[in-house]
């Protein structure tokens, strides 16, 4: 049986993403020295499948998939170490260059992280510098409107999850996974 080209491309893209996720899993375990890293290959394939299902194949889909993969890496790294490496925002900025519109990108880079920066200046240890840089880079990719939507979605998810499932309220938590989900949702539906 000969598959339609679109289905063939979809299967190849998801399979390649699964393999990249397996490599990302090994890299994360090596970089973090932690065995907490799990499900990266499945999440990687799922992110690719969602964007390919929504947008088909093309440059926009490639930009979305790469954005999702870097966010997935940042989320998993943050879960394992409670930090976001400095090279992650740089990678996101490079992904943003795939289909950049300079004025919205520059405004997103400057304006989207401002609430986090203000919170960090007002209250020490409230927001990490990695989260501020991450949202700045995501603002570059998403623009101001989608960037603020991502920020609000991510914070809503963080508050809801922490309130529902976490008993210790005084301990810090990894914010990047929630921000990553917010950014992916904003990229997909806003």
What does the model show?
The chain is mostly helical. It contains 8 helices and no strands.
% residues in beta strands: under 5%
Number of helices: 8
Helix content: over 70%
Q: Uncertain regions: pLDDT < 50 for 5+ in a row?
A: none
| Distance, first to last CA | 38 Å
Query: Quick one: how many beta strands?
Result: 0
Topology (elements, then pairings):
Blueprint: H1 5-32, H2 40-55, H3 59-81, H4 87-96, H5 102-111, H6 114-122, H7 129-165, H8 176-189
Helix pairs in contact: 1-2, 1-3, 2-3, 3-4, 3-8, 4-7, 5-7, 6-7, 7-8
Can I get a quick summary?
77% of the residues lie in helices and 0% in strands.
Observed structural traits:
8 helices; mainly alpha
